[in-house]
Amino acid sequence: QVQLVESGGGSVQAGGSLTLSCVATGYPYSSYSMAWFRQAPGKEREGVASIYTADNHSVYADSVKGRFTISQGRASQDRATHTVYLQMNSLKPEDTAMYYCAAYSYKAGFIPRSPAIRDWGQGTQVTVSS
């Protein structure tokens, strides 16, 4: 059973930084993509960044390029557990949203739309005040 557990959200002033973490367990593939999405009230869930665990190939939404960095920690020895981080710098009030971790089995040069993804974490709130 796939489990994705996020942590690290919180409140910060504009210009500040936060780092989100996501631990993935139980995924049936040794290599897969992990991604961060966000959803603000009244808006669709949008992809923020993704990373392919086998080669660190990363993709970013235009709105966060140069400010956010996705990375992965060392996988467990049996490659059953992966940890992904989202370092968020120069935060803006418009970055305020619930941030969700997701996983999918393929490598892509784009972040898939959320309806195409089955496995999600429970979300962690990020609030940026002006």
Describe the structure.
This protein is 0% helix and 48% strand. Strands 2, 4, 5, 6, 9, 10 and 11 form a seven-stranded mixed beta sheet that branches. Strands 1-3-8-7 form a four-stranded antiparallel beta sheet, with no helix packed on it. With 130 residues, the protein is mainly β. The model has no long low-confidence stretch (mean pLDDT 94). β5 and β6 form a beta hairpin. It contains no helices and eleven strands.
Short key terms for the protein model shown above:
130 residues, mainly beta, seven-stranded mixed β-sheet, four-stranded antiparallel β-sheet, 11 strands
Amount of helix: under 10%
Overall, the morphology is globular
Radius of gyration from the CA trace?
14 Å
- Average of per-residue pLDDT values: 94
Order of helices and strands: EEEEEEEEEEE
Number of helices: 0
Residues in β-strands, percent: over 45%
Biggest sheet character: 7 strands, mixed
Low-confidence stretches: none
Question: How widely separated are the two ends?
Answer: 40 Å
Compose a concise summary of this entry.
With 130 residues, the chain is an all-beta fold. 0% of the residues lie in helices and 48% in strands.
Write the layout of secondary structure elements.
Layout: E1 3-7, E2 10-13, E3 18-25, E4 33-39, E5 46-52, E6 58-60, E7 68-72, E8 81-88, E9 97-104, E10 119-120, E11 124-129
